[in-house]
């Protein structure tokens, strides 16, 4: 558990230093690869998609707090089953249906 927490903290530190991760949705909308989880959690429609499609990940306190700075793709290494490539593709398809909330 301590190793997982340390790994997540290290990933958060790296993610915050990488400018490619978007703090908001771009003109194309939300992305499992590029949009920070915090942005998705702050949009009620995207939040509902996450709650519905990845309930165990969504319920994890670390996802709700430290995970906010990461993308779903970055969190995949910690939740490989729930966030498999197949599930990320399904999540992306649902996120594509949402008009991003204006910031």
Explain this structure to me?
With 103 residues, the chain is mostly helical. It has one domain. The protein is 54% helix and 0% strand. It has seven helices and no strands. Helix 3 packs antiparallel against helix 7. It is globular.
Q: Short summary of the structure?
A:
By secondary structure, the protein is mainly α. It has seven helices and no strands.
Give a topology summary:
Layout: H1 2-17, H2 37-42, H3 44-53, H4 55-59, H5 61-64, H6 72-75, H7 85-95
Helix pairs in contact: 3-7
Task: Label this structure with key terms.
103 residues, mainly alpha, 7 helices, globular
> What separation lies between the terminal Cα atoms?
35 Å
Counting helices, strands and paired strands, the structural category is mainly alpha
Shape: globular
Sequence stretches where pLDDT stays below 50 over 5 or more residues:
16-26
Mean pLDDT: 84
Percent helix: 40-55%
Give the beta-strand count. 0
Strand composition percent: under 5%
Backbone CA Rg: 13 Å
The largest sheet is:
none
Order of helices and strands: HHHHHHH
Number of domain units: 1
Number of helices: 7
């Amino acid at each position: 558990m301590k190793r997982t927490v340390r790994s997540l903290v290290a990933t958060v530190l790296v993610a915050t230093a990488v400018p490619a991760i978007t703090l908001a949705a771009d003109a194309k909308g939300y992305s499992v690869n590029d949009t920070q989880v915090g942005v998705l959690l702050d949009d009620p429609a995207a939040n509902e998609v996450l709650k519905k499609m990845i309930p165990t990940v969504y319920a994890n306190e670390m996802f709700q707090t430290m995970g906010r700075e990461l993308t779903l793709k970055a969190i995949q290494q910690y939740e490989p089953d729930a966030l498999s490539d197949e599930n990320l593709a399904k999540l992306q398809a649902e996120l594509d249906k949402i008009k991003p909330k204006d910031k």
